[in-house]
């Protein structure tokens, strides 16, 4: 059996899929430990998993930026400072745990730098499709700016010269939690392993309130976007009221954000996602890859209202696959939202396309397939 050390950014959209793979490795009898903020990781990995705690570094970037400004905000406000903050602990964890293979979130650059300094083989786990292959082809200014950030972190870590390769892509392999029908053919060195679905902590849900006579629509914009969601939920509730006789929405939000909900709406702060999915007919989401893949893994069509980061890419991929409709988070009117919701619920083509994507995700194998491949690599990889 092999020993794996996992390093992920403390973001649900990154860590959930990686946790599913880690759980599959543990189920196969391998030893798995994590390095990261214990307050974030402990509810995800359970009380018995070894965690090397780093402490937490908050996100300081701006949420509404776009284009190069958004990229700079994400790196300067989070990726670069969290790398510097966590690097000493990640290195100490490698020395203490002596893993056969380090598993590194694509944007947890501390893991890549530590792997080089400690001469430990590592695999990149890409939780989003945003940066696969050559993500900034045709955008040389963006690519050069990110290269400068990575080179700066490399130099600050005391490593000589320049990074031998882009630290977002391990030379030992890159696993991406998507499929060709969504993201296109895998670039060289990338294995698409489909959706890695992670069960989360138990959540109470009012199952008895689900109306079997109506279709069920889940509406979720993610916890990190809640501070921007009040106006969006206002437009959503206005869109849903005329549909109340045939559509029952499950709104993931605080009741304070939705003072006048549609008749029969269920408003909850969290949902048991994987248990709820088989009871749904469609999902309206901000486009986080976890929610997108969870919905498509159940053959559910989507309305996607992207806000930032990889979400516009996920929305574009869903629409291109025919499995849903993209709308504008900040500008879509209630009428436009209602039309999109009605379309994915009533027009069979969206459900049919979602079911085709479901089969493609399943064919990729998910967490079990990823765990099997990682076990093979751990046995074969030698120090570089």
Your description of this structure?
By secondary structure, the chain is an alpha/beta fold. It folds into two domains: 3-194 and 365-380, Glycogen Phosphorylase B (Rossmann fold, 3-Layer(aba) Sandwich); 207-362, Rossmann fold (3-Layer(aba) Sandwich), CATH 3.40.50. Helices cover 43% and strands 15% of the residues. It is built from 13 helices and 13 strands. The chain has helices at 12-27, 38-45, 67-97, 109-118, 140-156, 180-183, 230-240, 273-276, 289-297, 311-320, 334-346, 348-364, 366-380, and strands at 3-7, 31-36, 50-53, 101-105, 122-126, 174-176, 190-192, 215-220, 247-252, 266-268, 282-285, 302-304, 324-326. The strands form two sheets. A seven-stranded parallel sheet has the order 3-2-1-4-5-6-7, sandwiched between helices. A six-stranded parallel sheet has the order 10-9-8-11-12-13, with helices on both faces. Helix 9 (289-297) links the parallel strand 11 and strand 12 (302-304). Helix 3 (67-97) crosses helix 4 (109-118), helix 3 runs parallel beside helix 5 (140-156) and helix 7 packs across helix 11 (334-346). The protein starts with a strand and ends with a helix. 47% of the residues are buried. The model has no long low-confidence stretch (mean pLDDT 90).
């Amino acid at each position: 059996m092999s020993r794996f050390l996992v390093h992920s950014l403390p973001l649900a959209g990154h860590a959930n899929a990686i946790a599913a793979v880690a759980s599959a490795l543990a189920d196969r009898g391998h030893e798995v430990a994590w390095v990261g903020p214990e307050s974030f990781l402990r509810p995800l990995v359970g009380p018995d998993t070894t965690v090397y705690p780093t402490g937490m570094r908050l996100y300081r970037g701006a949420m509404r930026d776009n284009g190069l400004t958004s990229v700079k905000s994400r790196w300067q406000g989070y990726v670069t400072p969290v790398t510097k903050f966590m690097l000493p602990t990640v290195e100490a964890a490698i020395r203490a745990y002596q893993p056969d293979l380090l598993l590194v979130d694509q944007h947890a650059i501390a893991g890549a730098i530590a792997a080089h300094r400690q001469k430990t083989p590592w695999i990149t786990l890409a939780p989003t499709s945003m940066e696969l292959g050559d993500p900034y082809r045709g955008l040389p200014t963006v690519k050069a700016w990110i290269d400068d950030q990575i080179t700066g972190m490399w130099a600050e870590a005391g490593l000589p010269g320049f990074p031998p390769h882009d630290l977002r892509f391990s030379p030992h392999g890159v696993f991406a939690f998507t499929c060709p029908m969504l993201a296109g053919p895998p670039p060289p060195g990338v294995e698409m392993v489909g959706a890695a679905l992670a069960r989360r902590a138990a959540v109470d849900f009012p199952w008895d309130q689900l109306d079997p006579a109506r279709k069920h629509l889940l509406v979720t914009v993610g916890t990190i976007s809640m501070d921007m969601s009040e106006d969006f939920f206002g437009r959503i509730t206005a869109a849903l009221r005329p549909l109340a006789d045939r559509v029952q929405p499950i709104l993931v939000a605080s009741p304070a954000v939705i003072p006048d909900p549609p008749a029969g709406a269920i408003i909850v702060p969290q949902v048991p996602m994987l248990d709820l999915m088989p009871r749904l007919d469609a999902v309206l989401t901000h486009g986080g890859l976890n929610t997108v893949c969870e919905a498509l893994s159940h053959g559910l069509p989507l309305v996607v209202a992207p806000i930032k980061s990889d979400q516009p890419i996920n929305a574009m991929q869903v629409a291109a696959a025919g499995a849903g409709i993209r709308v504008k988070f900040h500008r879509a009117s209630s009428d436009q939202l209602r039309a999109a919701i009605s379309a994915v619920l009533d027009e069979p083509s969206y459900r049919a396309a979602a079911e085709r994507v479901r089969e493609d995700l399943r064919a990729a194998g998910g967490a079990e397939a990823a765990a099997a491949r990682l076990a093979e690599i751990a046995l074969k990889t030698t120090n570089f």
